[in-house]
Amino acid sequence: MIDYYKKYEDKILEYKKQGHIVPTSDLVKNSEQIAKIKESCKINTAVLDHVAANIKAGMSTQQIDDLVSSFTKEHNAICAPYRFEGYPKSVCTSINDEVCHGIPNRRVHLHEGDIVNVDVSTIYNGYYSDASRMFEIGKVSDERHRLVEITKECLRRGIEAAKPWGFVGDIGEAISSYALSMGCSVVVELGGHGVGLEFHEDPFISHVGKKNTGMLLVPGMIFTIEPMINAGKARVVLDSYNGWTIYTADGKDSAQVEHTILITEDGNEILTY
């Protein structure tokens, strides 16, 4: 077993002496933990593949929840969102102007031209994984397709910026600079997070930021990058009725894509798709 924190402890402490924010030892996974988290990630990716093979216009978002729940159980895993802090379903399904945390419902159906984010999180043998995909239902407008493609590129650039001995702020700057250059905005209140031993761990991964700021990135850290990109303004509002779903304040569309990544000794590894 490789303990990456101990291996790099002197280097981490040197950064700390220079005034940087550094991860605590529990945020740096060892090789045994990494292997088990990867097993969870494989199931999480398989769940999203299962959704991709079945999602279509006319189906309800509850049917998506049913697909996720049954497939996860068949693979001896657990849907992490279910009952997490009171969340009532097994997956999040966010359509068009819903930024995130859309709650599956039998009365809510997908229509031709919709874009929908399906956010899946899995517990397998006690280890957590998390990822989401955007799905375009049938033929969507050029504007919606463009937003989805911009969001995917934001994720790609964010991952590219996530390097050992870099900083969380590098990720945020890479994402926000591109999104803004394309005339979009970035949701500030929500972001990525550490994952693996728990559903949500430190650090918070902001999708806006400044290079060379924020927590130091160390080999063995595992976290999500999940930019939420709005076609209009960045401001969002919480559904006061269900207490979960977040919408764009101006009613314009939003898109999100998410991967779990591992910081390696020479770059990073994408663990979920």
Produce the secondary structure layout.
Layout: H1 4-7, H2 9-17, H3 31-54, H4 61-74, E1 78-79, E2 92-95, E3 98-100, E4 115-124, E5 127-136, H5 142-161, H6 168-181, E6 185-186, E7 192-194, E8 201-205, E9 222-225, E10 228-230, E11 236-238, E12 246-248, E13 254-256, E14 259-263, E15 268-270
Antiparallel strand pairs: 1-4, 2-4, 3-12, 4-5, 6-10, 7-8, 9-14, 10-13, 11-12, 14-15
Helix pairs in contact: 3-4, 5-6
Description:
The strands form five sheets. Strands 1, 2, 4 and 5 form a four-stranded antiparallel β-sheet that branches. A three-stranded antiparallel β-sheet has the order 3-12-11, with no helix packed on it. It is globular and about 55 Å long. Helix content is 31%, strand content 23%. It starts with a helix and ends with a strand. The mean pLDDT is 98. Helix 3 (31-54) packs across helix 4. It has helices at residues 4-7, 9-17, 31-54, 61-74, 142-161, 168-181; strands at residues 78-79, 92-95, 98-100, 115-124, 127-136, 185-186, 192-194, 201-205, 222-225, 228-230, 236-238, 246-248, 254-256, 259-263, 268-270.
Helix content: 25-40%
* Major β-sheet profile: 4 strands, antiparallel
For the secondary structure, the number of strands is: 15
* C-alpha end-to-end distance: 26 Å
The low-confidence parts are: none
Q: What's the shape?
A: globular
Tell me the Rg in angstroms. 18 Å
Proportion of beta-strand residues: 15-25%
Q: Which whole number gives the mean pLDDT?
A: 98
SSE string: HHHHEEEEEHHEEEEEEEEEE
Instruction: Find the structural class using helix and strand composition.
Output: alpha+beta
Helical region count?
Answer: 6
